[in-house]
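Shift notes (night). Ran Putative TetR family transcriptional regulator while the centrifuge was going.
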Amino acid sequence: MGQDGLMVGTPRERAREQTLQDITRIGRERLAAVGAAALSLRAVARDLGVVSSAVYRYVASRDELLTLLVVDGYTELGAEVDSAVNAVAAEDFRGQFIALGRAVRSWAIREPARYGLLFGSPVPGYDAPGEQTTGPGTLVVTRLIGIIDAAHRAGALTVREGPDLSDTLATDLEGVRKELGTELPPDAAVRATLVWVSLFGSVNFEVFGQYGSDTFTDASEIFERHLALLADVAGLT
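Came back to this:
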């Protein structure tokens, strides 16, 4: 679809795109119903109302279907995070972080099977191709680091000096800073890493039932406390 609302591409290209969208939609439904390990192209073809060979022309294997679903999930999650963060004032860095965390949790609770595919246990026998999944898979962490980096550039980040880093860790962090285009000082980068893994750890515990069924009456309240603490750890005031 073009910016003016008109269809673009040849009829064959449009038909192929529509079929891939249908395969992805049914793949999401099958993922929720049977789990990633039990996904089957034959079942997708059956639900699509075509013979298996017709699906294989678009998606050659179960692994390709999984990759399609992984990219789809990361992309949708990234878009929801962007929408939530963009709704917050540009100078409210703490508010942007809170919005990001809430968006991640909201999507994860709404789409537990898709979240599990992205952040849960690896699917046996499946190795996600980095050339297709790394870009979409780093959308959220890139936005997260971008918020903290923007706060630092604006002089709004509380920076603390930590213990000296080993040469190995310092080199690794420098590589990360270059890759993400950030000017965060080393200790701020360490804190940002802690915030990143802790945010997803908190969401994982809730989505995957690791708190237990009767530990917290309202998991949203403790999540909000976690977000506030993580904002403090990051240095966002």
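Residues 62-234 form a domain with the Tetracycline Repressor; domain 2 fold (CATH 1.10.357.10). The two ends are 42 Å apart (CA to CA).
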